[in-house]
Write a structure and sequence with these properties.
With 376 residues, the chain is of the alpha/beta class. The chain folds into two domains: 238 residues, Aspartate Aminotransferase, domain 2 (3-Layer(aba) Sandwich); 122 residues, Aspartate Aminotransferase, domain 1, CATH 3.90.1150.10. Helix content is 42%, strand content 15%. The protein is built from 14 helices and 15 strands. Strands 1-9-8-5-4-2-3 form a seven-stranded mixed beta sheet, with helices on both faces. A three-stranded antiparallel beta sheet has the order 7-6-13, with no helix packed on it. The protein has a three-stranded antiparallel beta sheet with strand order 12-14-15. A hairpin with a 2-residue loop joins strand 6 and strand 7. Helix 3 packs antiparallel against helix 10 and helix 4 runs parallel beside helix 10. It is globular and about 70 Å long.
């Protein structure tokens, strides 16, 4: 077997870029020849093509996933005096986007198996004093796995709140045949260079089937202008630039194949790790297709295992080490959210992306097996 250092000599973003270099260069030349930098043909084409991929009526490009959350809140008139429920075990950009809209993020717990927002916890928050003033919940499809949409929707309908999606880690994931981003009234996407659908820098988009909402999303994201320099609203300046749109059009054409490769590699991990005493492999919700943005396992001796893997030059990561409800930037609450706290102390992201091989997966598992033997 090849030495670990030879198996991942390139980080995912660079490997992905090199795999599509010729097409990317051609797309960028086409964009440069157009003379348009923002609000041009590339962004319009990507919005249309991504809408077709998702199966929605409207996609509106923005500058980042965090901008997308803020614009979504503003377009739905969720701001100062309102609260929005966010899972505590989630990227900080989700809560930060809510806060930038003027609304207050309120944190709920996750399911143990999928790391996604727990319907029972959402219900408990909404029934508590914290739940007064909650207008919406942002459902984060975590690591590429889908949340319990039916359970969450039932709670949302009972309490009269909006259920929205963050799909930044779930490009191409499906819920009973429907793609992530088509389940709620609106959804935010992030196309950071490490994502399943990756730009060369920051980029994002919003998806909806609501035409009037789509018009408001575009209005808010374009400085609130209905006509140039004439503000209908106090909006934000958030455009999907032509460079990123041109890149995303190339990557979108190969997204299906890259998702298949991610699932194939995840199946390799699953087969090897099914009887592991070191880690617990991820679960996939019944009726759903996981997008495997990350292959995340739990380990009781997580920190020791990470040190062992890194000594063998295996690039593992923590996504994410501190739940949002414990972070100073969001209030630093001492209240325990049991599953969020447990997940933050146990998760490890193992290497997985379309440019890896089954050999690389086998090398990771071999190293973990040696850790198991060493502790016996």
């Amino acid at each position: 077997m090849s030495s670990p250092s030879n198996l991942w000599s390139l980080p995912h973003a660079l490997a992905d870029q090199r795999a599509h270099e010729a097409e990317l260069v051609g797309a960028l030349r086409r964009m440069c020849a157009s003379g348009s930098c923002v609000l041009g043909a590339e962004a319009q084409a990507f919005e249309s093509e991504f809408a077709d991929f998702l199966g929605v009526s409207h996609v509106v490009g923005v500058a980042s996933g965090m901008d997308g959350i803020e614009v979504m809140m503003r377009a739905l008139e969720i701001g100062a005096g309102s609260k929005v429920v966010v899972p505590s075990f989630a990227p900080s950009a989700v809560a930060a986007g809510v806060a930038r809209s003027g609304a207050e993020p309120v944190f709920a717990d996750i399911e143990a198996g999928t790391f996604t927002l727990c319907a029972r916890s959402l219900d408990a928050v909404l029934r508590s004093p914290q739940g007064r003033g909650v207008k919406a919940a942002v459902v984060v499809h975590r690591y590429g796995n889908l949340a319990d949409w039916d359970g969450l929707q039932q709670v949302a309908q009972e309490h009269g709140i909006e259920l929205l999606e963050d799909c930044s880690q779930a490009h191409g994931a499906t819920w009973h045949g429907r793609k992530a981003g088509t389940l709620g009234r609106a959804a935010a996407f992030n196309f950071y260079p490490t994502k399943n659908l990756a730009a060369l820098g920051d980029a994002g988009a919003l998806a909806t089937n609501d035409q009037k909402l789509a018009e408001r999303l575009r209005l808010i994201g374009q400085s609130g202008w209905k006509q140039r320099y004439i503000n209908e609203h106090a909006g934000v300046h958030s455009h999907l630039d032509e460079v990123q749109a041109a890149v995303l059009r190339v990557k979108l054409r190969v997204l299906h194949g890259s998702l298949q490769q991610r699932r194939k590699l995840a199946a390799e991990y699953d087969a090897i790790l099914k009887d592991s005493h070191v880690v617990k492999a991820p679960m996939v919700r019944r009726g759903c297709e996981h997008a495997y943005h990350q292959y995340v396992v739990r380990a009781e001796r997580r920190d020791e295992l990470i040190q062992h893997l890194r000594r063998e030059q295996i690039p593992v990561a923590l996504h994410y080490p501190v739940p949002l409800h414990q972070q100073r930037g969001f209030g630093g609450s001492q209240v325990s959210l049991r599953e969020s706290d447990r997940a933050a102390a146990a998760v490890i992201s193992l290497p997985l992306h379309p440019c890896l091989s089954a050999t690389a997966v086998g090398a990771v598992c071999d190293v973990m097996e040696r850790f198991d033997h060493a502790r016996c």
